[in-house]
Backbone:
């Protein structure tokens, strides 16, 4: 696979989001997840993304076990800053002491001596970003972190953080049905030389064209998202069906066309589609080399306009993670 740059960090042009491997969307299958991780490396996908918040650290443990003997093949990204209490209630903490505690825990669970890209998972608006990034910079100097990233951060804090230490990447949701970062974030990141890492580039499964209401069972994280609620789901599914018609004409799957749209947004864009199965991994990887003409990009956006998506991206509980309100 070709490579792209996130700041000074070189990674495969497409990464692998690992969150769902430990059961975020339904049951997890550790054996298949491990096989998927190994297959990703074999296909040239070397950029793996996780977080200490995913399944209370179990996700990092799974990845750490799978990478034994193959650490040198991987650009490993993880995050800190979100805690989940009972009932999936999120709390944000960015204090330097807490960051150091989280970092040590991630290193232990992953079984590594350094993390290539360490993200602030969400911004804690009660702690100056300068304090957090300054403490992260100390860990870069200590060799425990290679590069620093931010996730879902406001543009003013991106500038302030970058002034303290170079930020390699901004991870934010970006797909045909989530285009908020196009208003300001993309331009600011390109001005500062910060790479863009779209998470959920397949709309949490909706943009695959294969998702039905029956696929979203009790306990599935998507039940908290308004776009999957009754009514909204049907409207959004109708949008995806139109995308599927374009995909069929191109001779690709709906998910491949949706993913290619993200890949074609710029050479500094490295999406991290998530999957826990080899079958879908291989489909996603094939989209990394799918070039789209300007006319095709216009046609895709015509059948899937940004303002046509039904429902807000997050419910109130999760929206506050990015706003502090």
Residues:
């Amino acid at each position: 696979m070709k490579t792209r740059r996130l700041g000074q960090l070189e990674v495969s042009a497409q990464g692998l989001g690992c969150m769902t491997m430990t059961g975020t969307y339904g049951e997890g299958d550790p054996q298949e997840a491990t096989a998927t991780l190994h297959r990703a490396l074999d296909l040239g996908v070397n950029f793996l993304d996780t977080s200490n918040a995913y399944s209370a650290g179990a996700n990092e443990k799974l990845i750490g076990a799978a990478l034994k003997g193959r650490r040198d093949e991987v650009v490993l990204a993880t995050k800190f800053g979100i805690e989940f209490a009972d009932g999936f209630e999120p709390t944000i903490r960015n204090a330097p002491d807490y960051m150091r505690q989280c970092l040590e825990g991630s290193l232990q669970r992953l079984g590594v001596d350094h993390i290539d890209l360490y993200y602030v998972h969400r911004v804690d608006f009660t702690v100056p970003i300068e304090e957090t990034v300054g403490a992260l910079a100390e860990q870069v100097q200590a060799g425990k972190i290679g590069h620093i990233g931010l996730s879902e951060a406001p543009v003013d804090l991106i500038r302030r953080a970058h002034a303290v230490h170079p930020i390699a990447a901004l991870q934010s949701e970006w797909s045909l049905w989530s285009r908020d970062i196009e208003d300001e974030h993309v331009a600011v990141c390109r001005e500062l030389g910060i790479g863009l890492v779209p998470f959920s580039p397949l709309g949490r499964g909706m943009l695959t064209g294969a998702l039905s209401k029956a696929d979203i069972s009790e306990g599935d994280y998507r039940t908290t998202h308004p776009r999957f609620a009754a009514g909204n789901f049907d409207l959004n599914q109708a949008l995806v069906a139109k995308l599927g018609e374009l995909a069929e004409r191109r001779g690709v799957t709906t998910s491949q066309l949706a993913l290619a749209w993200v890949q074609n947004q710029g050479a500094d864009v490295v999406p991290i589609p998530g999957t826990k199965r080899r079958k879908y991994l291989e489909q996603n990887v094939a989209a990394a080399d799918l070039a789209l003409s300007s006319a095709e990009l216009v046609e895709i956006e015509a059948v899937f306009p940004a303002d046509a998506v039904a429902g807000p991206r997050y419910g109130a509980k999760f929206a506050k993670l990015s706003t502090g309100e």
